[in-house]
Design a protein that fits this description.
The protein has a two-stranded antiparallel sheet with strand order 1-2. The chain is built from 15 helices and two strands. The chain starts with a helix and ends in a 9-residue tail after the last helix. 77% of the residues lie in helices and 1% in strands. Helix 1 (3-40) packs antiparallel against helix 7 and helix 8 packs across helix 10 (210-236). With 325 residues, it is mainly alpha-helical. The protein has helices at 3-40, 45-67, 76-92, 97-114, 123-142, 146-149, 163-186, 188-198, 200-205, 210-236, 241-244, 247-260, 266-285, 290-304, 308-316, and strands spanning 155-156, 238-239.
């Protein structure tokens, strides 16, 4: 008789896992089906391209902040390095764009390794240092010889522009980021990251290699924004330091991720999609005061939904955590 409760608990957990997987697959199919039809139906390609970009950026930021507990204000550094890596490889060295993009992601990972010593910091100290390092990256690239980075005019990729192809590659990168975070949420690494986030000393006492776990999460969080930077360079066909290292990129990433709710797979996706539509509607109707209206919307969101949209729902219905990715 004593085995009955345990058997029921295992059966209940298995049932929850099946529902979780089905919801995850349904979410992936829904997102894929929608974005596949955008070019076919002649919808606004640029708007949907950037929506996918912000979903990817917010999802990757979720690895750093939601799972690892870091708040990198200099997150744009990975984006900018990925953009310039792609542009230099394509324009200066003659690489095919599709061959340059993985190397852009690798450049983001290498930059994360250079910034790895800052992982010893926490809270506002880490945030300020990461912001400073992003500024250093921008100044370093801006002061490289004009033959390499294009100087103040940046780099134009010439005839490489292929908006529809870039759109579908962006969709693939977005799905890869969602799949990675979905795996992370159920993996031993994800559990270790949460344990280190909540109490690093207790995790260390339980045998978790705190430094290695943090570094793995940090590298994952750096890979995707570097890819996004490279893809945006391909889509717009031009790269310069002012746009590639614009701090508004970090600000939007943070806002979109927090709006949906950090620590879940669906939270940043919901936040990025909702805020992208809000930004588009506000910009279309109130172009002169769009930033003011968006600022008020963000302030209201923080006041009334401090855990984000998905986070608030899960707080009100904690039993749904077993089913919502």
């Amino acid at each position: 008789m004593s085995d009955a409760p345990q058997a029921n608990a295992l059966a209940d957990r298995a049932h929850g896992e099946r529902i979780y997987r089905r919801l995850a697959i349904a979410l992936g199919l829904l997102v894929t089906g929608y974005f596949v039809t955008v070019p076919l139906l002649g919808l606004n390609l640029a708007f949907h391209f950037y929506m996918m970009l912000w979903v990817t950026m917010a999802t990757a930021f979720n690895i750093s902040s939601g799972f690892s507990g870091y708040m990198p204000f200099g997150y744009v550094a990975f984006y900018g390095v990925g953009a310039f890596t792609t542009a230099i490889l394509v324009k200066k060295l003659g690489f095919a764009v599709l061959a340059a993009l993985p190397l852009a992601g690798l450049a983001g990972v290498l930059l994360s390794l250079l910034m790895a010593p800052t992982l010893r910091l926490s809270g506002i100290y880490f945030a300020i240092v990461s912001l400073s390092l992003a500024g250093i990256c921008r100044l370093t690239i801006a002061n490289l010889p004009e033959e390499i980075t294009g100087g103040s005019f940046g780099i134009q990729l010439g005839s490489r522009a292929a908006p529809v192809q870039a759109f579908y590659v962006m969709m693939g990168v977005m799905l890869l980021s969602l799949g990675s975070v979905l795996w992370l949420s159920r993996s031993r690494l994800g559990k270790a990251l949460r344990a280190v986030r909540d109490d690093a000393e207790a995790a260390d006492m339980m045998g978790v290699n705190v430094g290695w776990v943090r570094l793995q999460g940090w590298m994952m969080a750096a890979f995707f924004p570097a890819l996004c930077g490279g893809l945006e360079a391909w889509y717009t066909n031009v790269v310069d330091t002012e746009t590639a290292f614009n701090t508004l990129i970090t600000a939007k990433t943070v806002i979109y991720a927090v709006a949906g709710g950090l620590g879940t797979v669906t939270g940043p996706v919901v936040g990025a999609i909702a805020m992208s539509w809000l930004d588009e509607l506000v910009w279309r109707r109130f172009p002169l005061i769009n930033l003011l209206i968006l600022g008020v919307a963000v302030m209201m969101l923080v006041l009334f939904l401090p855990r984000g949209i998905v986070g608030t729902i899960l707080r009100a219905r904690p039993q749904w955590r077993r089913f919502i990715p």
